[in-house]
Amino acid sequence: MKNYTGLGLPENILPDPASPDWMNKGDNAWQLAAATLVGMQSIPGLIMLYGGAVKKKWAVNSAFMVLYAFACVLFCWVCWGYQMSFGDTLIPIWGKIDVALEQEYLLKQAFLGKFPNATMVFFQSVFAAITLILIAGALLGRMNFYAWMLFVPLWLTFSYTVGAFSIWSVNGFLSTAGIIDYSGGYVIHLSSGVAGFTAAYWVGPRLTKDRERFPPNNILLMLAGAGLLWMGWTGFNGGDPYVVSVDASLAVLNTHVCAATSLLTWVILDVAFFGKASVIGAVQGMITGLVCITPAAGVVQGWAAIIMGLCSGSIPWFTMMVVHKKFEILQKVDDTMAVLHTHAIAGSLGGFLTGLFADPYLCFLFYSDYKNYVGLFYGFQNGKVHTGLRQIGLQLIGILFVVGLNIVTTSLICVLVQVFVPLRMSDEDMEIGDEAAHGEEAYAIWGQGERHENSRYSTNNDIEMPEPKGRSAGQVEMA
């Protein structure tokens, strides 16, 4: 720590090296809180959602894929991923490889915001992590865990960093052109949806009987995870202005209004066409609403957030319930958590609607620029039709870029990984699930946690198990 005692300054105004003049303590505190909220969407949010939404035999494996991805991404992020996404330009779509660990760098002011680089590195790391975790949703119930261990750092390095630099970095070609992606509709959700669906094609499907019947093992646990995901979106969208501002407040409110509208729309459609309100459908509607508003959260008015919620609750519902069932090519790909519809389609929809509804004044609050960011509807209203059409064009170019990038890179990564390890577990191991993959199970059948005596992985095959009290052995087997 520097010594200021010889400067002749009164003690009450001595500089505080831990709080430099450029740092805003409120902004820094909110940014760290927002990052933690986003982190909790994954750990424990998506651990609980995935762990509860799959068959019992896959609960451990599904949760472990989330846990591993979160840890692996954070390690890779500080070693090379952050600088490749936000550092000095290597090419217009990629930053230079460098670490983000030196004290001198971490304590300096971030490229945007009145807080240190250490805060920005952590904030962006949880966004990168949740993107890989969303990809996992398409692969639950059959991907070889060792293949997943290789896939995560490779995809982060060769796909995520390219999308993040191109769209979010101040030097990226789409960023400088004026694309609007407020908080990751493109970088996170469209990317994960396309990459997840592509990886699902290469990994192959679950067992036929698992595809035909894959009931959640714990709907209440799944709902608890979904609730953490929803509330955590306060940090997801509210943290992206990098300042405690009126725009951050608007982004938070728009986020929750759109999610609620989308959920209600999805439930109404389920009731109208299937005669029952499905809680799983409600969760899907919630997710599509959150995804759809993400590229627009702080740059659209409240009425636009409601319209976006109506669209995100109906269009992905239609593609999932109608279109998907009519096209055999879509059915051939086993997308366990339907990320194609809930993330790719909802993210594309949000990006396009952002091009229609982006309010120039709100864009000024976010970008400090009146010239380039004009939704098409406001272009007609303000006599800037050309600018509005340009915005729509950029939003569509962004969709095509992200789709193409992720189909190509994800395919190449899957082909590379399967050279070293199989992408898919064997049919025999998929019959067993967690015990075959990890030697563990989520819910013990017997009272003290011993494994079932007939398990081929049991260490207690020579131990006589006691008769459960209160139920016959046949009843326990059915349970």
Question: Could you characterize what this model shows?
Answer:
The chain is an all-alpha fold and 479 residues long. The chain has a single domain, classed as Ammonium transporter fold (Orthogonal Bundle), CATH 1.10.3430.10. It is built from 20 helices and two strands. It has a two-stranded antiparallel sheet. Helix 1 packs parallel to helix 4 and helix 2 packs across helix 4. The longest helix is centred in the last third of the chain and has 36 residues. The N and C termini lie far apart (63 Å). The C terminus is likely disordered.
Q: Give the class-level CATH name.
A: Mainly Alpha
Strand content: under 5%
What gyration radius follows from the Cα positions, in whole Å? 24 Å
Largest sheet: 2 strands, antiparallel
The gross shape turns out to be globular
In short:
With 479 residues, the protein is mainly alpha-helical.
Write the SSE topology.
Elements: H1 25-53, H2 59-86, E1 89-91, E2 94-95, H3 103-106, H4 117-136, H5 145-167, H6 173-177, H7 185-203, H8 208-212, H9 219-238, H10 246-274, H11 279-293, H12 302-326, H13 328-332, H14 339-357, H15 360-367, H16 376-382, H17 385-420, H18 427-432, H19 434-438, H20 473-478
Antiparallel strand pairs: 1-2
Brief descriptors of the model:
about 475 residues; mainly alpha; Ammonium transporter fold; about 65% helix; about 0% strand; transmembrane; Ammonium/urea_transptr
